Amino acid sequence: MESREHTILCPDSAGWHRLFWREWGPESGRPVLCVHYLTGNGTYFDWLAQDLGAQGFRVIVPDMPGRGRSEFLKNPNDYRFPQYISDLGALLAAVGINQPGSVEWIGASMGGMIGIGVAAMANTPVKRLTLVDIGPVLAAGEMQQMAKYVAQPAAFKNMDAFEKFMLEFRAPAWGPVPEGYWPKFTRDNARTLPDGSITLAYDPLIAQPFATDNSAGIAIWPVWDAVKCPVLVLRGEKSNILTPGVAQEMTQRGPKARLETIAGCGHVPSLATPDQITLIRTWVG
Questions:
Q1: d(CA 146, CA 142)
Q2: C-alpha span between 250 and 232 (Å, rounded)
């Protein structure tokens, strides 16, 4: 199944930037919005999006600003949740989603944290929320380590070296994946620098406000408690981001989420294997 590609102009503090997204499935289908993790882009959802699209859902998958094929922001201080929510609001309006409780939200890590915030708002468009290895708490130590890594992405002399890095760095956390996954993942996450070297396809300046705002960690339980829609949480068995204690507490308060543990992976599950795809398809179905 082929996807459809679109862009929209969104305002920010320094002007306007172009947001890129793809769609799978019929435009008349029930809408599903998929929002990726901090350093990723929409291609992370390709296996899931193709499956849901084939089932008749309209799957909307943006590259968040500063990632993938969306433009980098001129002011790095705009790489914050208010800007991301503004962009996603503009995207939903552009595709005609303007009613409360009308969209399935699937958010991986950062995309899930944004989803918690949006789902807690009055008249939220979120009908159901799927969180991929994320919750309302992120420890300061993990945040600081993440910010340091994000701000200094490595560069590689060619695609072979970049793919080797991806296998060594990402594969243990992603867990089981289908055949051909890593060559595609490498291509989808590659950005060529002026000197011809290859690095990850995001703006390193996304780390600037991330490090400043989150130096003490994040704990937004009151926001979680305000979420009223049904929530599915997919936790990587070996995750160091969503701890077992936090995941369990998410099932006991607020929306009292359903928790599923994905064996053999950490942060984040790939969402590319039949068992993971079936979990989500059944949930949104």
A1: 6
A2: 10
pTM over 0.85: yes
H/E stretch holding 260 reads strand 258-262
Element of type H or E holding 138: strand 137-138
Q: Which residue has the tokens 């989150």?
A: 214
By the 10 Å C-beta count (0-12 exposed, 13-18 middle, 19+ buried), 87 is classed as buried
Hey, what amino acid is at 161?
Answer: A
pLDDT digits (tens, 9 = 90+) for 60-101: 999 999 999 999 999 999 999 999 999 999 999 999 999 999
**Helix%, strand%, coil% for the chain, nearest 5:** 40, 25, 40
Structure tokens at 48: 């899931």
Q: Where are the beta strands (DSSP E) in 180-255?
A: 190-192, 198-200, 218-219, 231-236
Rounded to 5 degrees, φ, ψ at 251 are -85, -10
Give the tens place of pLDDT for each residue, 107-138: 999 999 999 999 999 999 999 999 999 999 98
Single out the residue of 257, 258, 263, 259 nearest to residue 275, CA to CA. 263
Q: 208 falls in which pLDDT band (50, 70, 90)?
A: confident
State phi, psi for 274 to the nearest 5 degrees: -55, -40
Task: In whole angstroms, give the CA distance from residue 119 to residue 227.
Answer: 6
